[in-house]
Amino acid sequence: MMVIDQPISAQRSDLWKLILLVTIPAIAAMVLTFGGAERLLPPASWWSALVNTDNAKSEELLFRHAFMPRVAVSILAGLGLGLSGILIQHLLRNPLAEPTTIGTNAGAGLALTVATLYAPGALENGRGAIALLGGALTTLVVFALAQRRQFSPVAVIVSGLVVSLTCGSASALLMAINREYTEDLFIWQSGSLIQNGDAVARTLLPQIAVCSVLAFMFLRPLRLLEAGDESAGSLGMRPAAIRLIGLSIAVAMSAFVVAAAGVISFIALAAPAFARIAGARTLLQRMVWSPLIAASQLWLVDQLIQFHFGEVAFPAGAATALLGTPLLFFFLLRLKTVTLGSREGTFTAVTPCGMPALLLLAVALVVATGLAFFLGKGANGWGWIAAAQIGELAELRLPRIGVALAAGAMFGVCGTLLQRMTTNSMAAPEVIGASGGASLGVLALFVGTSSIDRLSLGVAASFGAFATLALVLFIAGRQRLSPEKLLLAGTSVTTLASALAALVLASGDPRTDFLLAWLSGSTYTATPSQAIATVVVALLLLSLAPLTVRWLAVLPLGETVSRSLGLGVVSARAILLCLVAIPTAVATLAIGPLSFVGLMAPHFARMSGFRKPAVEIFASGLYGSIILIAADWAGRTIIFPWQIPAGLLTALAGGPFFLIAMSRSR
User: Which among 368, 392, 439, 403 is positioned nearest to 526, based on CA atoms?
Assistant: First the structure.
């Protein structure tokens, strides 16, 4: 999307905003840094402590090998994350993209989890090499899948998201099974800047420097992509090669930071947004200011952690999300426009599908539902339930099946509505804040009370979901329910919830097993009344969603075209958001904050050939139900009598299947 140049006076005003956005956090961080250093040593001893380590006192050793390396790593990590974030968002033309999007962080996390559990000897020389290897392998998988489509933004985004979800679910499953051995991994997955020597800082400095030089040397080809792939190709450039090289630089920087400090993903998402909001108009401006903003903010956050918590291992990623989300909300409220978005289509099959294929999909759902009820595993092994057992097992299985069926349908339909309304392939029910808000409500209840029952859980999740949803809609409503502002605000809430969840899970509280099960998406506690309520809401959604078919066909054409065709854009968006928000909140309350179903069911539908909005709505709902019913059935049978949360299996099993289907689609 092109941006019209502003007058010089406006540019100067924007420059002051950018300078203040960097200098205020940097000055505050510097004051805190000097204060922390003075608590260790008098200023006159700082230089000698840095250069002379012979016969040093304990305070001098702490200053030299812990305090100053931590300052250096926080600044270097911020620079790397800020630059990698803006590169990824520019190359994928999506304001929600960041290193997590393309699988790097999830691959590093899975590699460390496997090494911790099954090859602890590999960690003797540090986690860096393991994290780099895991991140590199998953990124190569993403690039291999995207290569067939000339590294188009949608191909990279979708394959990266699926790889991330699959690796993340595998890590979560391994940690759930081996809970007592992996508490420190929760800390690492939320970022940790604690240092024991300057080896990490010495290694990270040349890595970030080399990647930064390469990125700025590659500026001209990157700028050509702003005009579109066709324009770049007409000028003799190869968009696929530009995207591959640029993503490789960004991934390398992200992997180096992950290896050094763990996963601190919010900075990579927020810093480019701050830069654009504050007035960085050109790519060069964003590449300069985004790293500076990220570095100053991460430096400040880490100093605040040390000031308040001392040397307690408070995750830096959780802290950046906790402090950065309100600031991002404030800037979004003042923002008039967001200029970066994704306008690409998604994958489709060669032959469009209509009602016959939809009926076939409905038959598949009926078969899956029947198998989930009648086929199972018991004390005597696999088998069909006897007629005498139907009444007894119906009380146990029907509520779970009903909740899975209804929640899957709601997530699938809501995903289609959002992706078509925002024209963003990364849009899913979770990004509007309802799921993240429900998680925040449950986390607040978990921290504030000693016992959790079903009623209090439902009340806390409901309050959190609708409170955050109201906040997100208020922010987006200041600019005609802008899809870009809606997605940025909702994603910030979801990121905050994920960071706080990791922090709580790392606390060692014995109740975290219950919390982990709910966050992973499970139907363990489904009741008949809960099943009835979710089915009713799902039926209402399926009856109302087809009425929006015309809007879904027109909105992707853009606001100008939509208005010229007589569509009330704001009212249409508001109604669609209500249709998405309420079922999402209900489904989240029933089964937990699932990530995979609402994101991928619409892509399954389009890859199967369901292109028209009407049939795509129902196909997405059917796919969502099938996925969730199958995952719930597998979760209660694979390791019987123990159970695996459906949310983990949904991504763990559905991810590879989706990637195979994507590789065969056009």
Answer: 403
